[in-house]
Structures are given as structure tokens and as C-alpha cells.
């Protein structure tokens, strides 16, 4: 019964289905799993209750990001084969189940269960849930793929804006002892399961041959980087285009996550030696603004890419990001306005890079197995999730040990970020159309109907 309910054949939409119901279905999953960005809310309570170090309390989040990339890479083909309802259901079970396992771990004082639950099991839910709607959205919106994926992936960036105050409120109500944290985790698991079930029930795939009213396939093939054929996930790994985009995504994410992970202490340190140092409350407000631009950038810039093209928009993300980092370095602690505005725009590029990459992949490799290709590319995120914080924290620690303070704590790491963005910019310049020899040998109409 369950297998039938979750199968792709059960969710083929009738011709009059409203495609604008699909973004809300995707959002119900992405807003939930976007809670990952609010993990820091639990760090201090866990450290106090279970006697953990800062490094130990970060383990669930770090493992979750690693598992996100790995599960997306290895599960992408299954997502394509079994369809979005199956994928969303697996994400629901793993993500919500991870919270329930974590609740048991805190209640029994077994922190390894928290790491396993939130990071391991929950991380699988993150990865499968993240890619679950991508291919479907692109097929429903062939005329506006950047906008469509931007709407959904905006939800992942904005999930923390909901989760952070909600989690804080529950910890205030239930307490920050082991019982209170366990109860908070359990409530998260149940509520997210209910919320994500909306996506499971609502999602549909278009029927074979469906297309938006008034839109013709040849309209999507007007640019020189737009695919005229379709490439399988396994074949995509053998193309230079895939690895060039891997570098582009990895370095764009590394540059953004370096600020995001250490945003509050960074802005406090940067202006600590000025006449008007920032308070902890001001730093928290800065972090909230970063989360907002991270979320909005995913929709605004990815939608813009439908107009200016994917290659051009990544020129902005990478080249513009490098110039903004240079502006932060050169201004030092002389201007809070320059630091804040530059950081906000950099974070908008960070979020937009995630939202635009599925459409870039669709342009190059076609719609056949684009979800699986996207899953494999997300290993770049796993790498960046380790690389970015490592660079910023290691450099800051070494500079502090050398007796430096203020902007000097971060100057070296900012120059490293500039270098990475320049390399990413160069990689984007080398992207060319995929050689037709890599195209699958079937008609476009068959490709459009494949895996539905």
C-alpha cells in the first residue's frame, strides 16, 4: 500500500493541474530542513548540560552537512527513479527521526546518539530532502527554471529564521536541562513531520509531453550554453563541465560560509579596538540580517539568472564577491557600514549560488537525471562546509596567538577567500557547451518523459 502511494505513477498530474502548487510543496520540505542553519541555538545548552566543548557541540551540525552532500550524491539516482513523493517521505522519516533519536540521546546522557541522530540519520534527511523537488520544479517550470529552484531553495536559507526563535522559545519554556532539551528535540521531530507531510501529499510530476501554455521547447534552446541533448548522471561525471561547476560551487560556498559560521564574533573582533565597539546584541542583529540576505538572494539573483544567463550571474557572484572582500580588507575597522553592506551582499551571493546551480546544470546537461547530477555536485558543499570554517577559525586562532587583534585576525583568511573566488571565476569562464558525444541516444520527447 505504502509503496503504491509513494510511487511516481501515483502522482502524475492531470493536464489542468496548477503548477504553482509545486513550489509550496517544495517549500514545506526546505523550510523544515533549513533548521540546520539554526543548530547554534542548541550549542550552549548542550555544552552546559552534557559538559561538552565547543568542538564537540558542533559535531552534529558538521556531520549533518557532510551527510547532506554524501546522501545527495549517492541517493540522487534513487530520487530520480522513485520520484519526489518517495524522496520527500524518506526525508521526513530521516530528518524527524533524527530529532527523536537526539531527544533520546539527551534524555539518557548519551551524546553519541545526538551525533548519530541529528548528524547521521538527520543528515540523510537533509540531503534527500534538499534534492527531492529540484528535478520536478525544473520540469514544471522549463520557462523559468532559475526562479522555480530559487523559490524552493530560498526556503532552506530561510528555515533558520523560523527555527531559531521557535527553538529559543521552547528552550525558555521547557528549560535548558537534559529534560528540557530532550523535549524540545522531540517537539521538533513531531512538528516537522507534520509540516513536511504537506509536501508529500501535494507534490505532483507533469504528464509526458506536458508544457506550459504558450511555451515551446525551442524557446529554452536559444543560448549557446543551453543543452540540445540530455546527459545521464554517470556520463556527466566524465565531462569537464561538471568539475568546473564543482569548483565554482565549492569556492563560492567556502567564501560565504566562512563569514556565516563566525559572523557574530567576527564583527565584534573587527571593531573591538574602535571608539564604538559592537555589543553582543548588535552582533546578533547582524547575524539575523545575514540570514535574511542569504534567503532573499536565493530567489532574487537566481530569478535574475533567467534573464541574464547562468554564466553571467556567476561572474557577478564570484567576481563581485572577490571585490567586496577586498573592500572589507582595505576599509579595515574604519567603516562599519562598508563591512556590513559588503558582508550582506556576499551572503546574498552565497545563497544565490545554491539556488542557481540546478538551473545551470539543466542548461548544460538537460532535464534527464538533472536531480541526480545535482546530488553529486553537492559534494562540493560538503567540502566547503569543512574548508570555509577551518580557514577562518585556524587563521584567526594563529593570529590571536601571535598577539594580533581587530581586523588583523581575519586579513589573511579574507585574502584566501579572494583567491578562491578568483579561481572560481576562472573555472566559470572555462565552461563551454557539453560535447554532443555525451548526449543520451534518445529523442527529446523520450527524455522529457523519462523517469516520470
UniProtKB/TrEMBL annotation:
<dbReference type="GO" id="GO:0022857">
    <property type="term" value="F:transmembrane transporter activity"/>
</dbReference>
<feature type="transmembrane region" description="Helical">
    <location>
        <begin position="242"/>
        <end position="260"/>
    </location>
</feature>
<dbReference type="InterPro" id="IPR036259">
    <property type="entry name" value="MFS_trans_sf"/>
</dbReference>
<feature type="transmembrane region" description="Helical">
    <location>
        <begin position="59"/>
        <end position="79"/>
    </location>
</feature>
<protein>
    <submittedName>
        <fullName>Nitrate/nitrite transporter NarK</fullName>
    </submittedName>
</protein>
<feature type="transmembrane region" description="Helical">
    <location>
        <begin position="146"/>
        <end position="167"/>
    </location>
</feature>
<feature type="transmembrane region" description="Helical">
    <location>
        <begin position="313"/>
        <end position="331"/>
    </location>
</feature>
<feature type="transmembrane region" description="Helical">
    <location>
        <begin position="179"/>
        <end position="203"/>
    </location>
</feature>
<keyword id="KW-0472">Membrane</keyword>
<feature type="transmembrane region" description="Helical">
    <location>
        <begin position="408"/>
        <end position="431"/>
    </location>
</feature>
<feature type="transmembrane region" description="Helical">
    <location>
        <begin position="111"/>
        <end position="134"/>
    </location>
</feature>
<dbReference type="InterPro" id="IPR020846">
    <property type="entry name" value="MFS_dom"/>
</dbReference>
<feature type="transmembrane region" description="Helical">
    <location>
        <begin position="86"/>
        <end position="105"/>
    </location>
</feature>
<keyword id="KW-0812">Transmembrane</keyword>
<dbReference type="GO" id="GO:0005886">
    <property type="term" value="C:plasma membrane"/>
</dbReference>
<feature type="transmembrane region" description="Helical">
    <location>
        <begin position="337"/>
        <end position="361"/>
    </location>
</feature>
<feature type="domain" description="Major facilitator superfamily (MFS) profile">
    <location>
        <begin position="1"/>
        <end position="431"/>
    </location>
</feature>
<dbReference type="Pfam" id="PF07690">
    <property type="entry name" value="MFS_1"/>
</dbReference>
<feature type="transmembrane region" description="Helical">
    <location>
        <begin position="373"/>
        <end position="396"/>
    </location>
</feature>
<feature type="transmembrane region" description="Helical">
    <location>
        <begin position="20"/>
        <end position="39"/>
    </location>
</feature>
<feature type="transmembrane region" description="Helical">
    <location>
        <begin position="280"/>
        <end position="301"/>
    </location>
</feature>
<dbReference type="InterPro" id="IPR050327">
    <property type="entry name" value="Proton-linked_MCT"/>
</dbReference>
<dbReference type="InterPro" id="IPR011701">
    <property type="entry name" value="MFS"/>
</dbReference>
<keyword id="KW-1133">Transmembrane helix</keyword>
Amino acid at each position: 500500500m505504502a509503496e503504491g502511494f509513494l510511487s511516481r505513477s501515483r502522482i502524475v498530474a492531470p493536464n489542468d493541474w496548477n503548477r504553482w502548487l509545486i513550489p509550496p510543496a517544495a517549500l514545506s520540505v526546505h523550510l523544515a530542513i533549513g533548521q540546520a542553519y539554526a543548530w547554534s541555538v542548541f550549542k550552549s545548552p548542550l555544552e552546559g548540560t552534557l559538559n561538552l566543548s565547543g568542538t564537540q557541540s558542533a559535531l552534529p551540525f558538521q556531520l549533518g552537512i557532510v551527510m547532506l552532500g554524501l546522501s545527495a550524491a549517492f541517493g540522487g539516482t534513487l530520487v530520480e527513479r522513485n520520484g519526489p513523493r518517495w524522496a520527500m517521505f524518506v526525508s521526513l522519516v530521516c530528518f524527524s527521526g533524527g530529532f527523536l533519536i537526539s531527544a533520546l540521546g539527551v534524555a539518557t546522557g548519551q551524546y553519541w546518539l545526538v551525533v548519530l541522530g541529528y548528524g547521521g540519520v538527520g543528515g540523510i534527511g537533509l540531503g534527500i530532502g534538499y534534492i527531492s523537488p529540484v528535478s520536478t520544479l525544473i520540469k514544471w517550470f522549463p520557462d523559468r527554471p532559475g526562479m522555480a529552484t530559487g523559490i524552493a531553495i530560498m526556503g532552506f536559507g530561510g528555515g533558520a529564521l523560523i527555527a531559531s526563535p521557535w527553538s529559543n522559545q521552547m528552550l525558555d519554556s521547557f528549560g535548558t536541562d537534559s529534560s528540557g532539551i530532550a523535549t524540545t528535540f522531540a517537539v521538533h521531530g513531531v512538528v516537522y513531520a507534520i509540516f513536511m507531510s504537506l509536501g508529500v501529499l501535494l507534490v505532483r510530476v507533469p504528464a509526458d509531453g506536458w508544457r506550459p501554455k504558450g511555451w515551446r521547447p525551442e524557446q529554452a534552446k536559444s543560448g549557446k550554453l543551453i543543452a540540445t541533448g540530455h546527459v545521464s548522471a554517470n556520463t556527466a561525471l566524465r565531462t569537464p563541465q561538471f568539475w568546473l561547476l564543482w569548483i565554482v560551487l565549492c569556492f563560492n560556498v567556502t567564501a560565504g560560509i566562512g563569514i556565516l559560521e563566525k559572523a557574530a564574533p567576527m564583527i565584534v573582533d573587527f571593531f573591538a579596538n574602535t571608539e564604538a565597539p559592537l555589543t553582543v546584541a548588535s552582533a546578533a542583529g547582524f547575524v539575523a540580517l545575514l540570514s535574511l540576505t542569504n534567503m532573499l538572494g536565493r530567489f532574487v539573483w537566481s530569478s535574475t539568472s533567467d534573464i541574464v544567463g547562468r554564466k553571467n550571474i556567476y561572474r557577478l557572484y564570484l567576481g563581485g564577491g572577490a571585490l567586496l572582500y577586498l573592500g572589507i580588507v582595505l576599509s579595515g575597522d574604519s567603516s562599519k557600514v562598508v563591512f556590513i553592506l559588503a558582508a550582506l551582499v556576499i551572503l546574498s551571493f552565497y545563497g544565490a549560488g545554491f539556488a542557481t546551480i540546478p538551473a545551470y546544470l539543466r542548461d548544460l546537461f538537460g532535464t534527464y537525471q538533472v536531480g541526480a547530477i545535482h546530488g553529486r555536485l553537492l559534494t562540493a558543499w560538503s567540502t566547503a562546509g569543512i574548508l570555509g570554517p577551518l580557514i577562518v577559525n585556524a587563521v584567526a586562532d594563529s593570529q590571536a596567538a601571535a598577539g594580533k587583534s581587530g581586523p588583523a585576525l581575519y586579513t589573511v583568511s579574507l585574502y584566501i577567500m579572494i583567491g578562491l573566488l578568483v579561481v572560481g571565476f576562472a573555472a566559470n569562464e572555462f565552461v563551454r557547451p557539453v560535447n554532443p558525444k555525451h548526449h543520451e541516444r534518445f529523442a527529446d520527447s523520450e527524455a522529457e518523459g523519462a523517469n516520470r
